[in-house]
Amino acid sequence: MMEENFTCITCKQVVLPDGQTKEGNIHIVIEDGIITAILDQEADFVKSCMNHYYADIVTPGFIDIHHHGLGGADDLSLFWQNPEYTQQRLPKYGVTSFLATVVFPKDLEASGTLKTLHKLESIVGKSNQGATCQGIHCEGPIVNDCGGLPQGNSEMPLDEFSRLLDTMPSCKMMTISPHVEAKSNYKRIKMLTERGILPALGHDRVATESEILGALQQAPSQQFHITHIYNVSNFHHRNPSLVNFGLTDRFPSLPGYEKLAPPTVEVIGDLCHVHPLAISNLLSARHYSQIAFVSDATAEPIPNHKMRYCDRDMQVSADGKCLVMSGTTTIAGSCCSSLDAFRSLVKVFHVGIGKAVAMVAENPARIAKLDDSIGKLQVGRRADLLLFDDSLNLQQTFVFGNPVYTAE
Question: Which one of 79, 225, 231, 309 has the fewest beta carbons within 10 angstroms of its own beta carbon?
Fold first, then answer.
């Protein structure tokens, strides 16, 4: 091993897979962007390393599977036509990989959506000196309740829906409404599972127990997902909704539930979309491995910042936590980050660092079936790493073994 060919990061604590941590004098060796060794003793070649970095805590890079972009255009719906803008800013927030989340207004051509999809397909797998786009998360078009989303074509014909999927081979997951899907006998969900796209049930306040079960029964061996649990949904103790389905780790032995696995869930971690008590309930109800924290980011946290979203006026809230439709209380996205969610998990919800990291890195990667080389700090995996001090202040972000962000 030649000293100019490798990098070493020495730390006091490292976060390993499955929510585990290890303490001591740990040395992480990186060659050609890959982790080649994790040592608890300082080997001679480590002592001679010229590219040596130090931290209190090292974790894998965070992975955000629901992210709308941070800017780069006058309208939020066009942010991903300039993906480099967001890619270069995400490492500051601890994100090293993401799914670019796209919405679907009624006129896909006039809105620029098709152009956006074409642009995203061209950058999948590329870091552009920042975070890596791992694919696309489609939030729609088959949704029953838009919430803050633009009005789309929820009744899109099957042939048109199939052509839309053809335009984005890198689609990893799609938010889809069980209530709307039931009307077509779940044919679109069948298309998604046949193409290896994860169906993420969501944006549905009226889906019934039988409609949700009908969706899950289309692929009993597939674990479905629930998009931003609690948001654009409801909960009732007698009439099960998507929230009820997302708050259980084991289904009851009842007709219709046989051989079905409860969906994994994602939750927005800004403590604004979802009250901390509701997040506590989720953390108590589900095993940590079934939960992914996401940002649902639509802008950076600049209080009162004004912007457009499909020609609608939007404004960042006065506390900088979320984006709202101007003149209303309707939330149209978050201004938090995976880094914010991670800190809240540890400091507000008293989750151990290992499990907190799993919910913002390992779990999102597994749930969305992303590149096997990301999400875990392990020999043979990509050196997408975060360096923290003891107070969980992010000091440096590495992508492919290269520092792409250093705190001032």
Answer: 231
- Residues 333 and 272 sit within 8 Å (Cβ to Cβ): no
Based on the fold, state whether residues 19 and 88 are members of the same structural domain: no
Sheet holding 322-325, edge to edge: 306-309, 312-316, 322-325, 331-334
Q: Is the pLDDT of residue 5 over 60?
A: yes
Q: Check whether residue 38 and residue 136 sit in a common domain.
A: no
- Prediction pTM value: 0.96
Summarize pLDDT for 294-315 with one digit per residue, the tens: 999 999 999 999 999 988 999 9
What's the number of domains the chain is made of? Answer: 2
Please return the burial class of 255, using the count of CB atoms within 10 Å of its CB with bins 0-12, 13-18 and 19+: exposed
291-294 and 306-309 strand pairing: unpaired
Angle at CA of residue 338, ends 337 and 339, nearest 5°: 85
Quick one: average pLDDT of 94-110? 96
The range of the structural domain enclosing residue 10 comes to 3-59+390-406
Is the same domain home to 50 and 69? no
The verdict on residue 384 lying in a domain is no
- Of 165, 66, 34, which Cα lies nearest the Cα of 108? 165
